[in-house]
Amino acid sequence: MRKVVSGLFVSLDGVVQSPDQWQFAFDEEMGAALSDTLETADTILLGRVTFTEWAGYWPTVTSGEDAGFAKWINESPKYVVSSTMESVETWANSTLIKGDPVAAITELKAGEGKDITVAGSPTLVRSLLDQDLLDELVLLIHPVVTGEGRRKLFADDAALKKLELVSARPTSSGVIIATYRPAR
Hints:
By secondary structure, this protein is of the alpha/beta class. The chain has one domain (about 5-180): Dihydrofolate Reductase, subunit A (3-Layer(aba) Sandwich), CATH 3.40.430.10. The protein contains five helices and eight strands; from the N terminus they run βαβααββαβαβββ. An eight-stranded mixed beta sheet has the order 4-3-2-5-1-6-8-7. The two termini are about 15 Å apart.
C-alpha cells in the first residue's frame, strides 16, 4: 500500500503560512530531504489554496534552479481536494477529487505506485491526519518565531492526536527535520 506523506516548513510557534516571509535559510540537508520526496513519490495531493497559487506559477518555470522541481510537479499526477472548485484544467495532469475525499484517497493509497506527497496545503494535512489517512508528517522546523497574524499548522482547539517520532536531525542552518507517524 502507498503512503501519504506531507512535508511542511514550520516555525517554532507552529506557523506554516507564507514560509517565504520567514524562512531565512535553505541548506543542503533540507534540499536533500526534499529531493528524497521527489524520488519516493509519484503522485501529489493539493488543497484548493495551494493549487490555486501554484497552478499559476509552476507551469511557467522552465529554467533556473527550480526547473527540476517544476518538471517533476508539472508532469506528475496531481489530485486536488476541494469542495468549492469546479475545474482544475488550468494545470496539466490535475484531477479534481469529487465526492468523498476519504474514499478517493483510500483508493489512491491502494493503487500501484510510489508514495503520495501532500504539497503545502496545511488545511488538507490536518484533515488527512484527522481521517487517519496521513502516514508520515515531515516537519522542517525553523529556528524562528513568526508572531501573530499567520496560520498555524494546528489550531489552538485541535483535538488530541498522538504521533510517534521516527527521526530527527539538525541541519547546518539550525533547522530540525523531524519525521512523525500517527500512533495507531
